[in-house]
Structure prediction request, 1091 residues.
Amino acid sequence: MADSTPEQSSPSFGKLLFKFFTSFKLATIVLVLMTIVTLFGTLAQVEDGLHSAKVQYFHSWFIADSMGGLPILLPGGLLLMLILFVNMTLGALIKVKKRWKGAGLLISHFGMLMLLAGGFVTWAFSTDGYMAMYPGMSSNRVESYRNWQLEVMPLTEDGKGEKAWILPSDELQSIKSNESRSYESPELPFTIVVNGFTKNATPIPVSAPIAANAPGKEIDGFKLSPQKPSKEAEQNLPGAYVEFRPEGGGDPVEAILWAGSFRFDPRENPMPFTFEVDGKKYGALLAKKSWTVPFEVQLDEFIFERHPGIATARNYESRVTRFEEGQPEKALEIKMNEPMRYMGYTFFQESFGPSGSQPGDEMFSQFAVANNPADQWPLYALIVTGVGLGVHFTIMLISFTTRSRKKAPAPTS
Amino acid sequence: MKLRLLLLPLIALLSSGAAHARELPKTILPSYEPWDAEVVSTFENLLIQDGGRVKPLYTFARFTLLQFSGKTTASFQTADGVDHKLHYSEWLLNVLFQGKVAKDLPVFVVDDSAAVVQIGVSPKKKRDRYSYNEIVTGRAKLAELSAQYAEKQRQYEQSEKDPQYELDRIEGMILTLGRNISSFEYLIGQFGFARKGDVLVNENILPEELKQLARNLNVVEMLDRMPEMTVEQLVQTIRQQPGASEDERMFSGALRLFFFHANSARGVNLFPPQDKDNEVWLSAGDVLLKGLESKEDRPWATEQLSDLQALVDARNESPEAFSRELASFAEKQHSISDPRGEGVYSDLEVQLYRGKYFSNSLLVFIVAFVVMAFSWLAPGSKVGKILIIAAAVLALVGLALNIYGITLRSIIRQRPPITNLYDTVLFITASAVFLGLFIELFTRIGIGTLVAIVSGVLGMFLSMKYEAKEATDTITQLVAVLDTNFWLATHVTIINIGYAAGLVAAIIGVLYLAIRFILTMFGKEAKDFYRVLTRMSYGVICFCLFFSLVGTVLGGIWANYSWGRFWGWDPKENGALMICLWTLVILHGRMAGWIREIGVHMNAIILAIITTFSWWGVNNLGVGLHSYGFTEGVWGALYSSWAILGIFMLMGVFLWFEERGKKAARKDSQKISKKAVA
Prediction:
């Protein structure tokens, strides 16, 4: 039997690729995988905490993990969102037939693309940290929640630190516990050697029974005992073995640097490890990564209210004054759900302390400080998507009700 | 005949169950005299500050008894063989003003008798209720064990849920029993200072000479003659050895009694403070200590305590005198609280619970279901149609009762309908019932009504079970982040409508699969009917997507205002995202040609599993920023519901294979006919 269909040229690779990336099948697979990744990423938070699960499942290209003894091998959240973005752009905006009936879908897909793009900008370019202060204090310094850096600085005679040499947090936190890395600075007369960095650790005296199992060497009667990383990544207190080797030879100075020496109350001062090289004093410590904002904020008053007779906080708000060179000072209020937005930075009323404060105790206020270029994108995306879906489903509902009224069969028909 | 044979054991089982249910716990009380209805009514409307808000004693009594007993009535049989069923407010009246009777009422539920055996108390049935006097024989051991388990539980929380500190079932029961007994002792000791030596609890810690002294001591009068001192000074003075003289010993003893009474009378905050700007109400114990600390406050403190004293004295005098004094006490309390703007909606709150809108709503939905079931006996007939309309009307009544209850709750707390997990149950039920009836309005084939009724029965039943499980006031004060009516009214409401739609889609799916499975078993088909159900489901899934997506993004925007980030991959956020994703899977899978009729319904069931995980499961994980919604102990119920849904999924799998088989057979027959033609 002769083949009656006309001969067709095979589609080009580009067309095949376009067909693949615009297909509903690809969209369906990606959406199913995203659901699975979201589920596993949620369950992983129970054991690993939010930050760790977020990095491993959602801010990753591939996932290799295990849960309840079962291996998990999946594409990561980043990869899936990228494919979805391409699929939506090509399929729902470019390839789709442009007709009035599909206007709602077109608009809503555009809104979702805005949302994904906003997510990407946030992930790539936003910064977040916190600023804590007691009433009367002012600051323009924002500290990171989780990123620790190594700071080494010359000290003046009265023990104050001068300009610090900084080993950035990305570099420091990439050092494994059994790895050594050396660093030099023209401003410092010694080489800094980091002999292992531990994400969460506690210094213990060697006389303690558990010290026998702790890896690392003994320094001044102490060892660094690694701890299981906390579920709340902010709670981790890292530690590192650091060596300072004088350039001109001589005995190196060894130290255990531990994040616990940093301050955790805005009134405390950090306690650096101090040492001498060539007769000059130096200090070294693990400090939270910090940066400044182009204006200063002073906390004038912190108001904290509880519901009568119970410990639940009803309201906490901060009265602040914002100072900026060349600008008049401005008194403002920052409270839950009412942040202060200024110059691209947003100050949120985040929490308060010290922990265990009782009514009447002096308390500090803590602001979350975020700088996100895509801060308001979700709102715009929501409006666009909402309008799109509203239009589409209204058309569908009208069609459904019209058809249902016309034809309503009984189950036994 | 066969049916009767099958039904006989069931009837026997039910009647034995009913007989079993009638058997009330026995008490040693010879008889019981109920309280006068007017007294109970006045008592219910008294105000108390509890859980951060001023509420009627009616509410306090309800949740206290629910916490002790697992139900809101105290049922028992007195020695004269008479059965009694006390309402919670009557029970609390006994506790506060007739303690000796209250101590013999079996209200402390113990789910496993092994728990009482461990504290040295004679066990009754495996699950039973005990009176205080039955438990008190093991009081010392109970105190010891519950302190031990409380510490273990604290370590469990501190160690981020290290399994070695997790309480086992019996330990948990002992801890709960210990806490309940302790709360009961505080309640019963409230007016001890006014009972003149009639010490109802902890009398063993008082030496005989103090018991003697207590009979002659008027604490209120004593307060006026005491030197001004702080609580710390009082404690220090008590700790010192008394002097040798009779007066010194008497004074020391009186101070100890004063401290004993003040300490026993904490927790029931019936007195609005003197200071208008102060929001914290005081208990009788607080008033005693306030009077002790400042002579300036004594006239006020004495006045408050004298009112209570008069109430207790009147109780001993006559029912009429007690009724009079109670009314006077209530009037005075309201005259102070009303201008302060506190307890303004207490009448509505009493109405809310007295009206039993939610349990009545359940009842109406059950009746509607029965009516609906009768309609299946005459399908397509006029009677059948009338019965469906009747069922729809009943469902509408059930919905109205639910909405009325929700509205009352909103007015009482001056908030949008949803502020906690319990509210979500009521709201989602109302939304699902509304959706079902809305579908019925346009389809008129009874399925929408059935969806509404099933949603109503399941939802209202869940609300009652959850209330009993938590046994705490469901009108709660909000944490600071939730103190925004705008976001509560928008994000929270919209996302819960999305949940409701997800569940409605699943109910339609379950009905589709069950009906099609049964019809297939009998070799019947109803293609048009199936198609209508699929269109229904598809519409509801689209509705679900719209509300879930808008709700989720609104939640992100709220999070951006309060926590400084739009999206944080928090479990609750992820739950909402998964609902959006799965609805998109269904819609895109359908466009891809992978999901057809059966597929839509099976996926709607998966959507329900995801929705229930998002609604309840993530709250049980105990991680994330939505800590105000955390709950515990729901996995069992969730797994059971998923297992039930799994059965319908299996039906779907069967139907899918069956349909595939039919298609393959059709293709084969077409090929054969083509060959034959060729």
